[in-house]
Amino acid sequence: MKHFDTFGVMIDCSRNAVPSVSGLKRFFSTISKMGYNMAMLYTEDTYEVTGEPWFGYKRGRYSLAELKELDEYAASVGIELIPCIQTLAHVNALFHFRAYNKIRDIDDILLIDDEKTYDLIDKMFSSLSSAIKSRKIHIGMDEAHNVGRGKYLDRHGLCDRYEILLRHLNRVCEIAKKYGYEPMMWNDMFFRLANGGDYYVDTPLDFSKEITEKVPADCGMVYWDYYSNSAQRYDAMMESTKQLSDNVWFAGGTWVWAGFAPHARYSNIRNALAVPACIRHGVRNAFFTMWGDNGGECPYASALGALMYAAALAEEMSEDEMKAKFKEITGETYDDFIALDLPNYIHGEKRGVGTANYSKNRLYDDPFLGIMTLNGENADGTIYSVYAEKLHKIADESTTIYKTLFASMAALCDVLTIKFSLADRTRTLYANGDKEALRALAENEYTECIKRVETFYTVYRDQWYTMNKTYGFEVQDARLGGLMRRLQSCKDRLLAYANGEIDAIDELCEEVLPILDGNYPIWAATLTANIM
After folding, report:
1. Cα 264-267-268 angle, rounded to 5 deg
2. Which has the closest alpha carbon to 40: 58, 54, 51, 24?
3. pLDDT tens-digit series, residues 308-348
4. Strands 6-12 and 285-290
5. Alpha-carbon distance 346 to 415, whole Å?
């Protein structure tokens, strides 16, 4: 691409969903035809580290042989595979096991200035360097909000947190250099420590020489931004980041991390600002993230529409050229791929939803507890029958591997046709004391909803196994299986109440309060107040 030396993707392989080798090969081949030339596999612990059996244990980690196979295939289609790991925070899965308790500072943060920490990081680099040819590596180091405030504080007392971070960064870069690596890192901790905890700035932030002179000269800085809606912010952040490094990278977002459905429209709006900003500021290396927050429910392949759009921005294609190229590459229409967004558009396609994940909220919203019941902006869910019909039609006509994406979203809409308003209807009928209507609701809507969740589960499982390793689906088994069991439990209690076997349903007697900032809660927060 004329404006970029590196134009790539980052795929989250650490939050239940670990893409299969065959799935990644297919994906690499597809994005290379779009013009992408780099891929990062974001692996917090899901890769083999020699001599560390608990690292990625039971998580579907990539073996070194699998990484070699992926690296060779990626190179054959013009993709540079770059390791993307964590060397400070976001390693919470490690701390499930006692083996790593001694090097835990606090939360999900490694213990700085402990030699055992650096022994482990050395093993990470050693293992990856033996499997992947690229000498570039992303060392993470983002969102370590409480660094130095746990075990480190107990050992060393209050210390300047900038000094702690810089000392650790320099140590990690020394180890990287030992293996010939050119490291890069997320840049947010520098901003947060200088800016009262906030990351983004709208006017350039001046870092002191005391800070900038201690940043390793060979460490690239990655400015990530999936949210900003003003060109001014992108300008300010890129100019500020240049103070930290001459090697500035940009990471945008192709949103697949807010539930089962992607947010391609939202991604496109943000990247339409971000990509031109990169060009204006001479940022020649950019990639687009596909995180898997809270379960990895949305498959990375759902981002292909948004990735095509970002590539079209970089290549300055017309909309018609973009759509023709997408059809040629994938065998699907661009507009059909954008339709994968629909489960979150509760008021129709013309009204934006930002990053709201209404479909996940209402899928898991408990019929009796109703924690998300007021988070529907007065929608009634009737639009889902329209979406289901549209998506079923696309799935039925598809002859590509992506058929499974449309089928799963169609099945989800089938569920939400009933489930979206189920808690509201249950609560209203209970408040009215209408036992016969509750009986009918239990026997009809609850019964049908359970059947539709079962169908969605089956279709969604097929989609998962098409894209990912089987590891991680046990979480979906527990969640969707729990949903079916809970629906049956609520049905049974409604019938018991209607039959006079119980006098009240306590959960339905308690007032439902509005959720503040409730568009993007995690699964547990949607479901119940009792999961710690």
Report:
1. 85
2. 24
3. 999 999 999 999 999 999 999 999 999 999 999 999 999 99
4. parallel
5. 14
Report the phi/psi class of residue 157: left, alpha or beta, with left for phi > 0 and alpha for psi in -120 to 50.
left
Residue-by-residue DSSP string for 272-308: HHHHHHHHHTT--EEEEEE--TTT--S-GGGGHHHHH
- Angstrom CA distances, 16 to 57, 76, 200, 214, 476, stand at 12, 28, 29, 37, 9
Distance CA 265, CA 302 (A): 12
The pLDDT confidence band at residue 4, using thresholds 50, 70 and 90, is very high
Please state which CATH number belongs to domain 6-330: 3.20.20.80
Q: Who's near 448: CB < 8 A, 6+ residues apart?
A: 418
197: left (phi over 0), alpha (psi -120 to 50) or beta: left
> What are the domain boundaries of the chain?
6-330, 338-527
Average pLDDT over residues 115-132: 98
Task: Please tell me the distance from the alpha carbon of residue 132 to that of residue 138, in angstroms, as a whole number.
Answer: 13
What 3-state class would DSSP assign to 237?
helix
**Distance from C-alpha of 503 to C-alpha of 337, rounded to nearest angstrom:** 50
Give the pLDDT band of residue 64 (cuts 50, 70, 90).
Answer: very high
Give per-residue pLDDT as tens, 94-116. Answer: 999 999 999 999 999 999 999 99
| DSSP state letter for 515 | P
Give the contacts of 387 (CB within 8 A, at least 6 positions apart): 342, 343, 345, 410, 413
Chain centroid to Cα 301, Å, comes to 13
* Contacts with 521 (C-beta within 8 Å, 6 or more apart), sequence order: 361, 372, 515
Query: What distances in angstroms separate CA 478 from CA 6, 482, 523, one per listed residue?
Result: 40, 6, 12
Mean pLDDT of 495-517: 92
State how far Cα 74 lies from the chain centre: 23
CA 149 to chain centre: 27
Q: How far is CA 64 from the centre of its chain?
A: 24
180: left (phi over 0), alpha (psi -120 to 50) or beta: left
Architecture per CATH, 338-527 = Up-down Bundle (1.20)
Tell me the pLDDT tens digit for each residue of 272-291: 999 999 999 999 999 999 99
